[in-house]
Amino acid sequence: GAVVSQHPSRVICKSGTSVKIECRSLDFQATTMFWYRQFPKQSLMLMATSNEGSKATYEQGVEKDKFLINHASLTLSTLTVTSAHPEDSSFYICSARDPMIGKLFFGSGTQLSVL
Amino acid sequence: AQTVTQSQPEMSVQEAETVTLSCTYDTSENNYYLFWYKQPPSRQMILVIRQEAYKQQNATENRFSVNFQKAAKSFSLKISDSQLGDTAMYFCAFMPLNNDMRFGAGTRLTVKP
């Protein structure tokens, strides 16, 4: 079964609202999680690295005030898209590293559609 | 900065035939991991194969094998006895030790009956 759970799988929201996406590691403690964004027919682009108990590290060009990341526990990281606009519509995927075995596991992704 | 290049946007192969997907990367690191991921229409990322850079032996997983050329920074994926279920996007990925994973642009593979 899945070792990383991502929720919701699909969300539709109105422009100007905020949306929260959750990423949970189910059977390991993930000190580091990653958030990716994927536009149609394109690759996964790293948005930020989420570290438990500290601030996230954002990639160049990613607005940290727009994409709020919280990693308050060893099994949960959240991505909040604030004041969403249609151009934020995309597929968002999280991944979590199991530090014991050094492997990365991916969530099933969230399709965000902003009307 | 590390970059991953997949120069084949689309590939096709007849069922039961063999196909090779290309990937090159650029890094100054000596120790790292390389991966091939499959992304079907469900968009779930599925690990196909993984290679540790310090291992000279090419990784193999059933019908999937890689040709890892460290000096040339090349990491191609060979799919033998292609099946219809192999139709998907394939991403080559690079990850330094304990760091984040970077992906190539992807190759869309179609297996024809």
Structure description:
The complex is a heterodimer of chains A (115) and B (113). Chain A contains no helices and eleven strands. The radius of gyration of chain A is 13 Å and the shape is globular. The model of chain A has no long low-confidence stretch (mean pLDDT 93). Chain A is mainly β. By secondary structure, chain B is mainly β. Helix content of chain B is 0%, strand content 53%. Chain B contains no helices and twelve strands. Chain B has strands at 3-5, 10-14, 19-21, 24-26, 32-39, 46-52, 60-61, 64-69, 74-79, 88-96, 102-103, 107-112. In chain B, the strands form three sheets. In chain B, strands 2, 5, 6, 10, 11 and 12 form a six-stranded mixed beta sheet that branches. A four-stranded antiparallel beta sheet of chain B has the order 3-9-8-7, with no helix packed on it. In chain B, strands 1-4 form a two-stranded antiparallel ribbon. In chain B, a hairpin with a 6-residue loop joins strand 5 and strand 6. The mean pLDDT of chain B is 95. The chains are: A mainly beta (115), B mainly beta (113).
Briefly summarize what is shown:
The complex is a heterodimer of chains A (115) and B (113). Chain A has 115 residues and is mostly beta strands. In chain A, 0% of the residues lie in helices and 55% in strands.
Descriptors for this entry?
heterodimer, A: 115 residues, mainly beta, 7-stranded mixed beta sheet, 11 strands, B: 113 residues, 6-stranded mixed beta sheet, 53% strand, globular
Write the SSE topology.
The complex is a heterodimer of chains A (115) and B (113).
Chain A: E1 4-7, E2 10-13, E3 19-25, E4 32-38, E5 44-51, E6 57-58, E7 67-73, E8 76-81, E9 90-98, E10 103-106, E11 110-114
Chain B: E1 3-5, E2 10-14, E3 19-21, E4 24-26, E5 32-39, E6 46-52, E7 60-61, E8 64-69, E9 74-79, E10 88-96, E11 102-103, E12 107-112
Parallel strand pairs in B: 2-12
Antiparallel strand pairs in B: 1-4, 3-9, 5-6, 5-10, 7-8, 8-9, 10-11, 10-12
